[in-house]
Design brief:
Its cofactor is Ca(2+). The chain is mainly β and 935 residues long. 12% of the residues lie in helices and 36% in strands. It starts with a helix and ends with a strand.
């Protein structure tokens, strides 16, 4: 019994010792949208107002069916003025006696008044996105029930807060949207620390303590818990204790290698541990060199960044660690290395994830176009710094956005940041940076190409629907990469801001064209631009190669990493034989990773088998140090003419029979009946034993004059040839049909565009959209392309079921079906009752499938997503797409119109398209499925 009592007493003493030295948390709310606690709630206006009920905390009340939805641009006086009254009863542990107890709010929209047991906790807090706290030690009843009452006003009594936060281009929400907890501290404790850990190993800290203590000990531990260097200490000084220590050869922090250490601070009094805290740190140095660039750990950086809101469709600004991990993981998957917080500080867990997964951060004091007044801004700045300053991922501060810069606050960043990180004014030329938003590609005259500031647009290529982001980025990035003054930039923005409308049957609402600006959909659905960015921003640049007979298996590479040698990556190759509806034959292998240092070029050698040319395509997959795919490049081996030679059937046992009338050629062969207009030469009808195939009325030239004239019909070696007559003045575009005994049909068109500058060129056919069920085609996929968004696809055989999806709109079903597809070899059109196949022997042909819905553009109609006439088209050139702020032609050369200079109309200089049509298919060839590559 005595032994057990002694053990119990020892355990109690140990518990009390640990209790005394640690900070403790008691959550009153949940920790995120996936973990909430119900509080009593009363909403003053809007949905479900005027009655007491409950609400999960944290949350935005609109998403719980209360109040009113309003977007920031909405200026109606009666919009979004509601208040929320919260009540929650809680018990404080009795062993918290003689400890300091704070109540901490990580974020509340927007004015927050806190009352504990009927008494005010302190002044009303103004401002939504900042961690604030009150000392409520004297207001609590330990070991008993306590009552917390909180009043939250959606709009602030401080007009400057409304100007900075509420009148903005994003959704405006109300409520306690981040966690609430009690923080218990000993009477003597470490209030805060400021840390600067440089790449040279010099560790500096400012330690702020309250109460009486003798010294503070500091030790560092690595990710495995192993002590790094020696423990060191400093005598506690009044106000702030400053300490410096040098460590040898620390593992440095960067976006590529996010090495973290735990810095453990232990407060000592009379030889006993009084308080202990731990901070994750990274050794890294950020340096701005005037008229040069931004250097991290001595290496000049190109930031591949995106703007990101704290947002989730079903919970508004209330997120979770899981969402933060998902967001950062998707950014890393797109080969991004940076993110800008728009337009306010994020959740603490987002910064923690950026620290651990490796993403450079620009953290921003709110101010969309308006600014906080100086007293309010000063207070909120201090709250932001206290919460965020030690994160190694943060390498920039931003004071507001697009004119929302209170210049009276600028000095605070320099004076209070121990690390002296650079301060940015987004959209301004400020502090040596040119960050102007949405500049046209050719803005270089007198500024970008001939200026002297570091170029780093904090917003560029403003996405909307399917415009921007991938469309234009290749031109922009090539210019940025090759400009020594460019530090890269930040796309606008990461995800569509579509919110669940609890007042509209839970539909997703982007507020028209205000919110669909993302690279991914509201629930992280990947748009086509996702993969374009992934390829363009790959840190391994693979130079294009043609798979000719002389190909020796070598690829020229450029290492666009800042800190990674390519011998730390892996290189896998695969050869595939591609066939419709069947699994592909393939061979695989690995290539030795070449020793190519950052920013250098070199060669990758693949040892291909002797029969490599018997395959259709070669695929090269590069993975990073962690085994994550950077991109998979595809290289066609067989050309369209090779497929055509194998697939097209010309001979048959039957003969081609021609019947002429005054207006038509009627041709039959092997059960196929074809009708052509005798005047225009257009295909009027195709019919087989099952019935009519509704593919007709073509080829109609797009951006060309349909002057096919003087058709004749003749038999040549058993084939019927129907052709127009070339006339340099009136009939310079020519059309020739060849009908083979097999029933196959060949079309050859030679044509000239009707203007020097054209949006697109090709030929159109009619096909009722109501009849299409899907397609299976060989070419690049599965995503559609634009003239200024050609990258991000993969060559293969793709099966796609019909959908009517529009980018950025419900149901966010990707890949979209309608649009342009590149590098077509052949396509089987799967109809509801009839199928047919089209094959080309020409390279670089685009397939156009119908016309996607045109989403609501801005008043400037910048996106201009134009499509040809007709329903199905085969194109030599397709249209580009603009952004929310730029027309296609201002996004770079790839966005400009096609240019054709040909005055003489000589046949040898005409554009030449050749296609073969097989109308003998029937419904038995229909395959169930979804979008997939047949291999």
């Amino acid at each position: 019994m005595k032994i057990r009592f002694t053990l119990f007493l020892s355990l109690m003493m140990m518990f009390c010792f640990v209790h005394a030295q640690q900070s403790e948390k008691l959550y009153l709310s949940g920790t995120g949208n996936d973990n909430t606690v119900n509080w009593d709630f009363f909403c003053t206006e809007g949905m479900n107002s005027g009655k007491w009920t409950t609400i999960p905390v944290p949350s935005n009340w609109e998403l719980q069916g209360f109040g009113k939805y309003n977007y920031g641009f909405n200026k109606e006086a009666n919009k979004g003025k509601e208040k929320g009254w919260y009540k929650y009863k809680f018990t404080v542990p009795s062993n918290w006696k003689n400890r300091k107890i704070n109540i901490v709010f990580e974020g509340s929209m927007t004015d927050t008044e806190v009352i504990i047991n009927g008494k005010s906790a302190g002044a009303i807090h103004h401002g939504s996105f900042y961690v604030f706290k009150y000392d409520i030690s004297k207001l609590l009843k330990l070991g008993e029930e306590n009552l917390l009452e909180v009043t939250v006003s959606k709009h602030s009594a401080n007009q400057s807060v409304n100007e900075a936060e509420r009148k903005a281009d994003f959704w405006i929400f109300g409520g306690i949207f981040r966690p609430v907890y009690l923080e218990s501290l000993p009477q003597t404790y470490i209030e805060s620390v400021q840390i600067d850990a440089k790449a040279n190993g010099v560790f500096t800290a400012n330690i702020f303590t309250l109460g009486q203590a003798d010294k503070v000990n500091i030790e560092l531990r690595d990710a495995n818990g192993k002590q790094f260097g020696s423990e060191f200490s400093a005598k506690i000084m009044a106000g702030v204790t400053k300490i410096e220590q040098e460590f040898k050869n620390p593992a440095l922090w960067s976006s590529e290698f996010p090495n973290l250490y735990h810095a453990i601070f232990t407060l000592i009094k009379n030889g006993k541990i009084i308080h202990q805290i731990s901070k994750k740190i990274g050794f890294r140095t950020v340096e701005v060199r005037e008229r040069d660039g931004v250097y991290v750990n001595g290496v000049k950086m190109k930031f591949k960044g995106v703007n990101r809101h704290s947002f989730y469709p079903s919970s508004g600004r209330t997120t979770s660690r899981k969402i933060s991990i998902a967001d950062v993981s998707l950014m890393k998957e797109m080969n991004m290395n940076a993110v800008r917080m728009s337009h306010y500080p994020p959740d603490g867990h987002f910064l923690e994830v950026c620290d651990s997964l490796g993403l450079f951060v620009m953290d921003e004091l709110a101010g969309w176009h308006g600014t906080y007044d100086t007293p309010t801004g000063t207070k909120l700045f201090k709250e932001m710094m206290a919460n965020d300053e030690n994160h190694p991922s943060i390498i920039f501060w931003a004071n507001g956005n697009e004119g929302g810069h209170n210049r009276e606050l600028d000095h605070l960043f320099t004076e209070n940041d121990l690390q002296k990180r650079p301060l940015i004014h987004p959209w301004e030329v400020f502090n040596g940076f040119e960050t102007t938003h949405y500049r046209e590609f050719n803005y270089g005259i007198g500024n970008y190409d001939h200026g002297h500031n570091i170029l780093m647009p904090t917003e560029f290529l403003h996405g909307m629907w399917d415009g921007g982001h991938g469309a234009g980025i290749e031109d922009y990035w090539n210019a940025m990469w090759n400009n020594p003054l460019s530090a890269g930039g930040f796309l606008w923005d990461f995800a569509d801001q579509a919110v669940v409308r609890t007042d509209k049957n839970d539909e997703l609402d982007t507020d028209g064209n205000h919110g669909p600006d993302g690279i991914v959909g509201p629930y992280h659905e990947k748009e086509g631009s996702f993969f374009t960015i992934k390829e363009v921003w790959s840190p391994v640049f693979v130079e294009k190669r043609e798979m000719t007979s002389g190909f020796d298996g070598s690829f020229l590479l450029e290492n666009r990493y800042a800190f990674t040698n390519l011998n730390q990556c892996t290189f896998d190759w695969k050869l595939k034989k591609l066939k419709a509806g069947t699994d592909a034959e393939f061979k695989t292998g690995k290539a030795d990773a070449p020793n190519i240092k950052p920013f250098e070029k070199g060669k990758l050698q693949i040892n291909l088998p002797a029969d490599w040319r018997s395959f259709d395509a070669l695929y090269l997959t590069v993975k990073d140090f962690y085994g994550k795919e950077l991109f998979t490049w595809s290289f066609p081996i067989a050309l369209p003419k090779d497929d055509a030679d194998k697939m097209v059937v010309k001979t048959g046992s039957s003969k081609v029979v021609l019947k002429e009338s005054a207006i038509a050629y009627q041709v039959s062969a092997n059960g196929i009946q074809l009708t052509f207009d005798k005047q225009t030469g257009l295909l009027q009808q195709a019919k087989n034993s099952t019935g009519v195939i509704p593919f007709s009325n073509g080829p109609v030239l797009q951006e060309g004059i349909n002057n096919f004239k003087n058709f004749t019909a003749k038999m040549v070696d058993g084939n019927l040839i129907i052709s127009s007559t070339y006339d340099k003045k009136d009939g310079y575009n020519t059309l020739q049909w060849t009908i083979y005994p097999s029933g196959w049909l060949k079309m050859q068109v030679k044509y000239f565009p009707s203007a020097y500058f054209t949006t697109f060129v090709g030929v159109n056919f009619s096909y009722p959209e109501t009849e299409i069920k899907g397609v299976e085609y060989k070419g690049n996929g599965p995503y559609r392309v634009w003239k200024n968004r050609m990258k991000g696809t993969e060559f293969g055989v793709w099966k796609k079921d019909y959908n009517n999806s529009a980018t950025g709109e419900p149901p966010w079903q990707y890949p979209e079906f309608k649009g342009y597809y590149s590098n077509m070899y052949w396509c089987e059109f799967i109809g509801k009752s009839q199928n047919f196949r089209v094959i080309t022997d020409r390279e670089d042909i685009f397939l156009r499938l119908f016309t996607p819905k045109k989403s609501i553009d801005t008043e400037y109609d910048n996106m201009s997503p134009t499509f040809p006439n007709g329903d199905i088209s085969f194109m030599n050139g397709i249209s580009a797409i603009g952004t929310k702020t730029q027309k296609p032609e201002t996004t770079g050369p790839m966005g400009m119109k096609h240019v054709f200079y040909d005055f003489d109309k000589e046949p040898s200089r005409a554009l030449d398209m050749t296609f073969y049509f097989d109308f003998s298919l029937n419904s038995s060839s229909l395959r169930g499925g979804t979008t997939k590559q047949s291999p």
